[in-house]
Every structure is written in C-alpha cells, then in structure tokens.
Amino acid sequence: MSELGLGLQSDKRPHEYAALAQRAEAAGFDVISVFHDLLFQPAIFPLLTIAASTERVRLGPAALNPSTLHPVELAGQAAALDLASGGRAYLGLVAGAWLDRLGLDERRPVERMREAVEIVRRLLAGDRSGYAGKHFALVPGSGLQYEPARKQIPLMIGTWRPRMAALAGELVADEVKIGGCANPDMVRLMREWIGNDQVGIVVGAVTVVAEDGAAAREHARREVEMYLEVVGGLDPTIKGPPPLENFTIAGTPPEVAEQVRRLFDAGVKRVEFGTPQGIDTAAGVELLCDRVLPLLR
Fold first, then answer.
1. Considering only CA atoms, which of 199, 206, 94, 243 is closest in space to residue 157?
2. What is the SS3 assignment for 200?
3. Exposed (0-12), middle (13-18) or buried (19+): which is 105, by Cβ within 10 Å?
4. What confidence tens digit (pLDDT) does each residue in 63-81 have?
5. Ordered structural domains, the chain, with CATH
6. CA-CA distance, 136 to 71, in Å (whole number)?
7. Whole-angstrom Cα distance, residue 197 to residue 192?
8. Residues 169-225 pLDDT 10s
9. How far apart are CA 280 and CA 276, in angstroms?
10. Which of 91, 94, 173, 285 could form a disulfide with 168 if both were Cys (CB 3.0 to 4.6 A apart)?
11. Element (H or E) spanning 74, and its range?
C-alpha cells in the first residue's frame, strides 16, 4: 500500500511541531519524519513532542548516523521514542553528511553501518552476549536497563549508494530512503541495487506547493541548494546538470500530486513531502492536507 509522509526540518518551536503533526495526522498522513541535519536541533526533541501530540502516525528520525552517535545511543533513542509513542517509532540510519566539518573518519561506511545495526538489534532484543567489531564494541553483560516497548523497531537505511543499498537488502531493513530524490528512474535503479523485494523504497525531497506553480518551483530551487551540495552528483541516471524536478517536489496541488503518482508508479512505497512544504510551511502543509492528499487517496 502506498504511503504519504511529512518530513520536517528541526528548526522550530515546540508548539509548531505539535500543531503541524496534529494537522497532518488529522488529514491522513501515515508517517511524520524529523530531519537530523548537522547543527540543527537533534531530532529526538521534536519527535518526543510529536509523539505526545499524536495518536496514530508512525514517526522517526531521518536520519541518525553511527559517526556522531554510538549504536548504544541509537538504540536508546529509538527505544525511548517507541515508549513515548506507544510503539509507533521507526529508526532511520544513514552514513551521514557534512561529517568532514567535524573531522570525523568517513571511511568504511558500509562496515560501520553493519556493526551499528547489529548492536542496535541486540540491545533491543535483550541480547547481553556482547559484541566485538572493528568500529564498535559491547562488553558481555551490557544491555538496556529498562524494558523497551518492542524488541524490534522498524529500520530505515538512507542511501544513494549501491553497496549500502545491498547491505539494506541483506539485513532486511524495512525501508531504504533516497533522501533528496524525486526521480522515478533512480527509484527503479535502487530497486535493482537492493536486491530484496521485501525492502520498501522511500523517497523524500524538498517540497513546495503553492497556488502559483512557477513561484513554488522558484522557491524550491532556492531551498534545495544546501542539499544539492550533497546529492546533486549522486544520481547515476542523470547526465549533465541536475534537473530541478528530479530533486524537488514543487508546483500547484495538481502538479505535485502528478509528480507523486509517477514516483508510486516507479515502485515507491512512501513519498515524504520535505521541508519547507510551501513558500510558508504552515500554508504549505495546509495545501498538502486539503488539496494534495485528496488527489492521492
């Protein structure tokens, strides 16, 4: 079944997260994600606020990384959110972006991800046998000092790379997210890379919906600049300058709905409408709820 999600940047006040989440849940959104971009608010803060303000939507970070957070912290944050939300959390993991600004070692991201996922799964399952990897370790006897709501929490791995996608297929992650992508051709290629039809594909991109389609696309062009620095050269299906429509979801409500349909037709499980949603976030979310979702349900 196709799903629709809302992806929020972590730059807001608590009451804003609550209001946006409640509006999205009432309109029928399936998932609310919060970004964990470097030097923005840690995603766990808005996610806990959203958990307390909603009853049905699934929610999680898009995404945490095992370079700035040890797997013990990843497991702890996921378990805490799952408790706070009554078992509605997912854990989003990614190799990480902009890590060079911190002087962190970015080598062997696939190996690091494999070890991080193993430790997280062991901790949630109550396995205290310990772990000794090349990057991370747990002394035997180490384990969570409280009972998690669930012993397994859905896992989403974010990537544009074939080896990380193959790892997600091998580990049977619940989802792979192509962050910053709105290109159906990339979705089809990702399906080949994953090599496991049990793993769903999620795409999320800068979204701007407005009554004036040209104004929406121009605003999206400005908003996507910080992400194009990371993803602009990662799509091997594109030759030459990256077209705006392959990295943003933008236009009038009917135009946005049509763009989403093409992504679903390519095999996407969920489309996440990413920040800023509109020329003004509150107005954009209103248009998504009132004018876009009814065209897709």
1. 94
2. strand
3. exposed
4. 999 999 999 999 999 999 9
5. 3-203+263-273 (3.20.20.30)
6. 8
7. 9
8. 999 999 999 999 999 999 999 999 999 999 999 999 999 999 999 999 999 999 998
9. 7
10. 173
11. helix 71-85
